[in-house]
Design brief:
globular; 11 strands; Nucleotidyltransferase, domain 5; alpha/beta; 374 residues
């Protein structure tokens, strides 16, 4: 089956992520969102534009903050130094654009590290940026609301998957009692929390934050030399961590089931499937893939081996060392919950942070979401 990129996939502006250059700010308040993850430091600066937002500037840098964390339980001096340098670049961009409204969060690496409080104090001293460490539930919630525009009106059961550097969040949502055209908006309203669902609203059946992402899972099996053997072990190890997730034993629903995957792994697999030698968000975001198509791409990665993956332009130099641990997670999910409809989302925590701020301030209305009709 050929992939489809359904109507509504462009609910974010086409240049909402990583524009090629900085736009000159126009009149109107700007918002910033920064995601300090286990592997990367990423920031968006945007302004409200009707029911969406327009990106003014962006920043992304692989800082490998979680390097060595599995072994030591601490953030290393070198990783903290790299991160502070990246944050200083972000600070200059914020000053350049005179941004006053912002939210900046740190996730799994800082949740787990014994010296994260000291690191937060270092960041404040060196950059003045108000970074906060958020809970796994809030991280999952932000990932979910960023994907609201990709929710189909026909979806009755939704699973949102966010494969990060240090953790993987899964959220299982029941939309059966929600009017079809209201389903994307019902997802947006989950920004208030996963508990106490509104009558006729989306209901979170269960959610889980597995402390295994592309970096942490790779590090667990770094001593295994055989490429295919390491992949099999990573897949088995990740599936073991799903045992306490309520939907794990039930498999995929027969009808009305949609998975939305948001991560560098999912977008890389999609780009590889499309044969893109240069990444193009407009072709990837909103693409629908089947379990069989995903399996074929992952099998091709295994056939390439480490040297072949390193040289493959579809994967990229920054992703090749992490792609197989991410692929092990993704293939496990597709084996447990096979589907003909995995929607690829080139969006995540930063977009969720922007949405939440703008909706809170009343400058971005969730009623503007149309979702995916098909």
């Amino acid at each position: 089956m050929a992939p489809r990129r359904p109507a509504g996939a462009d609910a974010f502006p086409r240049n909402a992520v990583e524009p090629s250059g900085t736009r000159q700010p126009e009149d109107g308040g700007l918002y910033a969102a920064l995601d300090l993850g286990t592997n990367s430091c990423r920031m968006l600066i945007a302004r409200p534009a009707g029911s969406q937002f327009q990106v003014v500037d962006s920043f992304s840098k692989p800082v490998q903050l979680g390097q060595g964390l599995e072994a030591s339980g601490r953030l290393s001096r070198s990783s903290m130094a790299r991160t502070v340098h990246a944050l200083q670049v972000c600070k200059r961009k914020l000053e350049q654009h005179k941004v006053r409204k912002m939210r900046m969060v740190a996730t799994e690496a800082c949740r787990r590290a014994r010296n994260s409080r000291d690191f937060m104090r270092t960041i404040r001293r060196e950059t003045g940026l108000p970074i906060e460490i958020i809970s796994a539930e809030e991280e999952a919630r932000l990932a979910v609301i960023s994907c609201a525009p990709l929710v189909s009106h026909k979806t009755e059961t939704l699973m949102v998957v966010d494969i990060g550097g240090g953790s993987t969040e899964l959220v299982w949502i029941d939309l059966e009692d929600v009017e079809p055209k209201e389903r994307p908006r019902a997802i947006m309203r989950l920004s208030d929390g996963f508990g106490n669902p509104r009558p006729g609203g989306a209901r979170v059946v269960d959610w889980i934050s597995v402390p295994l992402g592309v970096a942490t899972l790779r590090d667990q099996f770094a001593d295994v030399e055989d490429d295919q053997g390491r992949f099999a072990l990573m897949s088995w190890f990740f599936e073991e961590a799903l045992a306490n997730f309520t939907p794990y034993a039930d498999g995929s629903p027969d009808e009305g089931f949609q998975i939305i995957g948001t991560s560098g792994t999912v977008t890389t697999v999609a780009a590889s499937f499309l044969g893109l030698r240069r990444y193009d968000r407009t072709k990837v975001d909103g693409l629908e893939m089947t379990s069989e198509q995903i399996d074929r791409v992952i099998h091709s990665y295994l056939q390439l081996g480490p040297d072949g993956r390193r040289a493959d332009p579809r994967i990229g130099r920054e992703r090749h060392a992490l792609i197989m641990s991410g692929a092990a997670i993704l293939q496990t999910l597709m084996r447990v919950w096979p589907t003909t409809r995995l929607s690829v989302a080139d969006r995540g925590l930063r977009e969720g942070l922007l949405y939440a701020q703008m909706v809170r301030d009343g400058v971005l209305k969730p009623e503007g979401l149309n979702g995916v009709a098909s």
